[in-house]
Amino acid sequence: MINFVTVHWQSAKWIDVQLDYLQRNVAAPFRVYASLNGIDDPAVRARFHYAADVEGIHAEKLNALAAHVIAEADPTDPLVFIDGDAFPVRPLVPWIADTLAAYRLAAVRRDDNLGDRQPHPCFCLTTVGLWGDIDGDWRKGGTWVNAEGRELTDVGGNLLVQLRQRGIEWLPLLRTNTTNLHPLFFGVYGHRVYHHGAGFRDKESRLDMGLRPELYQKVRVEREAPSLGTLRLRLREQPLRSVRFSVHHLDVVRRATKKTLQLRSKRRTAEKRERFVARGEKLSDEVFARLRGDPGFYRDFDADAG
């Protein structure tokens, strides 16, 4: 029995898609354990072997679901973690058995995300027994230095440490796209698994922040000074004939002008970022419509996949 663990959050948008692609590409008995926070339809929940509102952050949900699998499954059974917006696009049988015969764990490694080094839960294959033996943990923990020279951690950081400490060699599944609409989203990994990316949130990533820093720069705004608009309101309340001008007033005007320019810059940056995110959402919707209707859509991204 192949055991899949997945998380859907506040939207059932991806459930039909994911389950349909699993049915299409898993020619063996399988069951799906799911966290369905914010999805209350009994008919939807009934499609899963196990479904619950699992508390905690994403990594904690995966850990909790894996505990349910361990309580029910045979230690030799495959255990597959898969994001709600991810699914296989090529057959996983007999690939799962062949892979586990050579490696104790295989997972997406997002070198495409500024050189992330950890196993990523958008797709991770192992066995129920190994996960229980190492007390598998998806939470942040272990660190690495990325392509920007920054030390960071992310989901899967603890798992990376657990594998290293035990000397367990794992198989990285790397991005195999031959066409990229985005350098991180809409990715095919190992010619076998599709990950849409940010399926349950705005289409922004850490990679975007690095590639488009002008959209994410923090514009400093002087807090104490009034803006020019505030000064105008004050002048309406206090007629000019009652004001004795001094050097102090010139400094107030200078600071107000500076603050007004800062506010305008901050607003322009926010507007550019909103347009950028909106374009990403539009592209995401277009790809989603395509993948719902065409099981071969992935060949547009990975020409070598079949």
Describe the structure.
With 306 residues, this protein is α/β, with parallel strands linked by helices. It is 38% helix and 17% strand. The protein has helices at residues 15-25, 42-45, 58-72, 95-102, 128-133, 157-165, 206-211, 228-237, 247-293, and strands spanning 2-9, 30-37, 50-52, 78-82, 86-88, 106-108, 120-127, 144-145, 151-152, 171-173, 187-189, 193-195. β2, α2 and β3 (50-52) form a beta-alpha-beta unit. α8 crosses α9. The radius of gyration is 25 Å and the shape is elongated. The two termini are 27 Å apart. 32% of the residues are buried.
Quick rundown:
This protein is α/β, with parallel strands linked by helices and 306 residues long.
Characteristics:
306 residues; alpha/beta; Spore Coat Polysaccharide Biosynthesis Protein SpsA, Chain A; 2 domains; seven-stranded mixed β-sheet; three-stranded antiparallel β-sheet
Q: Overall 3D geometry?
A: elongated
What do we call the CATH homologous superfamily of the largest domain?
Spore Coat Polysaccharide Biosynthesis Protein SpsA, Chain A
Structural class designation: alpha/beta
Number of strands: 12
Low-confidence stretches: none
Distance between the termini: 27 Å
CATH topology of the largest domain: Spore Coat Polysaccharide Biosynthesis Protein SpsA, Chain A
- Evaluate the radius of gyration: 25 Å
